[in-house]
């Protein structure tokens, strides 16, 4: 008899939109408002820091400290210590990872066991679900939903029902994963909303994995609040972020996790047993970039002021375009993305997809192939239980050159005239 090849932990592949839709974007070369990456360069200072690191001598090209290059963990501890209002130990409480993605993987593998329940707030970045399952955990879902009668103009109108959330906590709940500012919705959780989650975590002795990769990108005066800074939450929160999103250099694939030394020792074991260490040169460059930002913090020269100001304008541009062609957008309070309602679109998709898939998948495929505009179906950010309910939305990334946004606008306007 043939030997069983497949390990059990590979038995939960999620049907991911990324493989299909990034391939479509390669094959059809559309105007790409799909995957979340800027089509403009990172700021000059971070590019120069990278060049300097590359030319900085032999050490820059060799292994560095496994859990994070010393200058990087020191500035991360200093920077986020200031924001969180606490001392952070650079060596014991910071871990540098291969993107926020690997930080999520380390946190989930290190802290979730066979049979543990993990609450996922929908919509969620779609890797959470397979990562939890691979660890043997059971995802439990709770949806953000638009407040009745809100007309859904802002991501702030999407809220958690307090009773529903509370009902998801059981003696088996080990963790909750939250993402603010949220991908794809753009919701920035308010302090009261985070407090509600924190109270439940404390009451039920549950961990919180807080994905904050868009932490610097908030608009209209919305403020990003770190759940780890709320009373009683430091000990039970793993805060995750991304140098790629921070410095508009997603291809660098560098991120980090920050948590108490007690939690961190377990994350380090997973990191050591998988990636071991991240590239030295990018860590050096990111360290220098953060040192610069530390000095300029709160000033108009800071990239953390300039980037959201630039994206705010792009967000307005995309929103008015979508509104004018009848695709009602949900205005994001933060992040890279805007979702829009496609219910009113009249287009015959009967020959485009199979009956079983959510409508947004079929629509996005059609829009990419037939109209030359790439987007992402929003149902991919929901559990199978809820994906149909939210398949009337598609996601646009507005972190793009003005010329790209203009090209998208031209496509949408031309199409709307033929409808
Ligand atoms: N967490 C969230 C919420 C993210 O959005 C991402 C990055 N990617 O999104 C691509 C997309 O939605 O089009 C990550 C984590 C991963 O970050 P990193 O690139 O640092 O691994």
What secondary-structure arrangement, pairings included, does this model have?
Elements: H1 17-28, E1 31-32, H2 44-54, H3 70-84, E2 94-97, H4 99-111, E3 117-122, H5 128-134, E4 138-143, E5 145-146, E6 158-159, H6 162-168, E7 173-179, H7 191-204, E8 207-211, E9 237-242, H8 243-246, E10 255-258, H9 261-272, H10 280-296, H11 303-324, E11 329-330, E12 337-341, H12 359-371, E13 373-374, E14 376-377, E15 393-397, H13 402-418
Parallel strand pairs: 1-13, 3-4, 3-7, 7-8, 8-9
Antiparallel strand pairs: 2-10, 5-6, 9-10, 11-12, 12-15, 14-15
Helix pairs in contact: 1-12, 2-10, 3-10, 4-5, 4-9, 11-13
Bound molecules: 4'-deoxy-4'-acetylyamino-pyridoxal-5'-phosphate (IK2).
How would you portray this structure in words?
By secondary structure, this protein is α/β, with parallel strands linked by helices. The protein has two domains: 14-42 and 302-413, Aspartate Aminotransferase, domain 1 (Alpha-Beta Complex); 44-296, 3-Layer(aba) Sandwich (Aspartate Aminotransferase, domain 2), CATH 3.40.640.10. 39% of the residues lie in helices and 14% in strands. It has helices spanning 17-28, 44-54, 70-84, 99-111, 128-134, 162-168, 191-204, 243-246, 261-272, 280-296, 303-324, 359-371, 402-418; strands at residues 31-32, 94-97, 117-122, 138-143, 145-146, 158-159, 173-179, 207-211, 237-242, 255-258, 329-330, 337-341, 373-374, 376-377, 393-397. The strands form four sheets. It has a seven-stranded mixed β-sheet with strand order 2-10-9-8-7-3-4, with helices on both faces. A four-stranded antiparallel β-sheet has the order 11-12-15-14. β11 and β12 form a beta hairpin. 4'-deoxy-4'-acetylyamino-pyridoxal-5'-phosphate binds at residues 35-36, 99-101, 125, 179, 183, 211, 213, 242, 244, 250, 253, 255.
């Amino acid at each position: 008899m043939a030997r069983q090849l497949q390990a059990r932990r590979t038995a939960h592949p999620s049907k991911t939109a990324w493989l299909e839709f990034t391939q479509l974007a390669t094959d059809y070369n559309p105007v790409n408002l799909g995957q979340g990456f800027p089509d403009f360069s990172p700021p000059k200072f971070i590019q120069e820091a990278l060049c300097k690191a590359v030319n900085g001598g032999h050490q820059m090209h060799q292994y560095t400290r496994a859990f994070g290059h010393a200058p990087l963990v020191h500035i991360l501890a200093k920077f986020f210590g200031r924001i969180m209002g606490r001392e952070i130990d650079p060596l014991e409480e910071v871990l540098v990872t291969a993107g926020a993605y690997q930080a999520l993987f380390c946190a989930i593998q290190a802290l979730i066991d066979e049979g543990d329940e993990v609450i996922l707030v929908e919509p969620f970045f779609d890797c959470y679900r397979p990562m939890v399952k691979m660890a043997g955990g059971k995802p439990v879902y709770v949806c953000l939903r638009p407040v009745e009668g809100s007309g859904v103009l802002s991501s702030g109108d999407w809220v958690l029902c307090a009773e529903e959330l509370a009902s998801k906590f059981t003696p088996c709940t080990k963790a909750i994963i939250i993402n603010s500012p949220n991908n794809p919705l753009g919701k920035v959780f308010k302090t009261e909303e985070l407090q509600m989650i924190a109270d439940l975590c404390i009451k039920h002795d549950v961990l919180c994995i807080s994905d904050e990769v868009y932490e610097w990108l908030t608009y209209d005066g919305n403020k990003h609040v770190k759940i780890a800074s709320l009373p009683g939450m430091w000990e039970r929160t793993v805060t995750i972020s991304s140098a790629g999103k921070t410095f508009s250099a997603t291809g660098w694939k560098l991120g980090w996790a920050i948590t108490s030394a007690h939690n961190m020792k377990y994350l380090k074991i997973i990191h050591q047993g998988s990636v071991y260490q991240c590239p030295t040169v990018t860590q050096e460059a990111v360290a220098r970039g953060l040192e610069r930002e530390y000095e300029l913090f709160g000033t108009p020269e800071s990239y953390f002021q300039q980037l959201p100001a630039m994206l705010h304008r792009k967000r307005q541009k995309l929103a008015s375009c979508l509104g004018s062609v009848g695709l009602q957008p949900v205005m994001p309070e933060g992040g890279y993305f805007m979702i829009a309602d496609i219910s009113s679109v009249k287009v015959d998709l009967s020959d485009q997809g199979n009956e079983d898939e959510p409508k947004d998948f079929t629509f996005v495929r059609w829009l990419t192939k037939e109209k030359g505009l790439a987007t992402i179906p929003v149902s991919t950010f929901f559990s199978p239980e809820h994906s149909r309910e939210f398949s009337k939305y598609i996601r646009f990334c507005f972190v793009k050159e003005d010329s790209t946004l203009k090209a998208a606008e031209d496509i949408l306007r031309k199409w709307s005239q033929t409808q």
